[in-house]
Amino acid sequence: MTAAEKFRTLLRNDRRFDAEAYNFIYEALDFTLKNVVRKTPDGSQHVRGQELLEGVKRYSIDQFGCLAQTVLEAWGLKNTGDFGRMVFNLVEYDLMGKQEGDTMDDFENLYDFEEAFDVAPVFCYSREKNQWRVSYVPRSELKPSSSVRSK
């Protein structure tokens, strides 16, 4: 059976998550390998559940900004455990690997979506490039703006 056939079978047998969510998990895994996980001295890399979820959070915000939670929920993802369920679906259909010791518990309740994806845009203008850039910061890290009092 080809990978495409395995994937179609997975989607037929478990309709909880949108096909795009599975594509996203592969993109987030790639992002995690490049930006979160450090190679071991022997050059190997294994992404633990906690590391993947950190990569998922950062990649979601990078891709979707303030809409990250909305997009994930539209795909059927409501909590970190749902990412674990997707990963283990992919493992079950031989579309992703795992190591001994990897469990669903690695993905359960690592962060709350509402808190993790409650971000605010911060805009920066680059004179050299003559363009605006946006980055996102957790709203909890923003200082309250001073109120203006009228006399």
Would you write up a description of this structure?
It is a single chain. By secondary structure, the chain is mostly helical. It has one domain (3-117). Helix content is 45%, strand content 11%. It contains six helices and two strands, in the order ααααααββ. The protein has helices at 3-13, 19-35, 49-64, 68-74, 80-92, 113-116, and strands at 119-126, 131-138. A hairpin with a 4-residue loop joins strand 1 (119-126) and strand 2. Helix 3 (49-64) packs across helix 4. The chain is globular, with a radius of gyration of 19 Å.
Give me some keywords for this one.
11% strand; 151 residues; mainly alpha; two-stranded antiparallel ribbon
What secondary-structure arrangement, pairings included, does this model have?
Elements: H1 3-13, H2 19-35, H3 49-64, H4 68-74, H5 80-92, H6 113-116, E1 119-126, E2 131-138
Antiparallel strand pairs: 1-2
Helix pairs in contact: 2-3, 3-4
Count of DSSP strands:
2
Order of helices and strands: HHHHHHEE
Silhouette = globular
What structural class is derived from the secondary structure elements? Answer: mainly alpha
Q: Strand count, sense and closure of the main sheet?
A: 2 strands, antiparallel
Number of domains: 1
Mean pLDDT: 90
* SS element count, helices: 6
Low-pLDDT residue spans: none
